[in-house]
Amino acid sequence: MESRRPREIEALIVRHGGLPFVAPSVEERPIEANEEIFAWAERLFAGDFDVAVFMTGAGLAYVRDAIAARYPLKRFVEALRGTTVVSRGPQPQAILNGLGLNGQVNVPEPETWREMVPLLAACSKRRITLQEYGKANMEFASALQALGASVTSLAVHRWELPGNVEPLREAARRIAARDCDVVVFTTSVQLAHLLRVAAELELEKSVLQALSRDLVIASVGPITDEALAERGLKPDISPAHPRMGALMRKAAEQSVEAMARKRAGALPRFS
Length: 271
Hints:
alpha/beta; Rossmann fold; 11 strands; elongated
């Protein structure tokens, strides 16, 4: 299952010997009203933040473009230079590089909010702004507040079902029927959207049972692992490094053995 790059994912699966069925399950849609971004920018320009944390490249790019539509982009860049900039992973870092900025705090793998808390705890300054993604991360904000930080969150896009949900419905049907061998989750929200669609088809219980008992679950990393655990599921395959290529390589290497542990199988088919 994949949210943004179905052709790329199909090619990766084929390259590693799998038979793919890729079901787009997530769309990142920007929040159209930019007034919150403009109000946030005014506070940034005024020096209200000591630390700026950017969680996603797509979110930071949206903020950059919205601000550039009203203010000189140079003003945004100079304001960020006056803060400690934290980049969660290579995607926001690429946007920062394009602005002539570097993330001043390197987040270790697996690059979740949990790795960020001790790094931010080491910062003496406590006025933190956090660019959210998809949904509010209340655990992260609470952990920062427990350090005595003042946290200002900025929501710039939300996760929604794709406009065409039929491929996701078909994925739910195939999983419920055990008509695949390996189910790959590359973000935590994919499971929620799969089960939402499955529930509409009255297949949620069957999907959960298939994932629990019969099908191999491949998960990209800890945040997705947590989402699976909340539904009583455990990944059978998870890469040491939370990257798409690493996930697909490990799935290719271990899927037959993992499949044998759950049920008899032949060549792995991916959904």
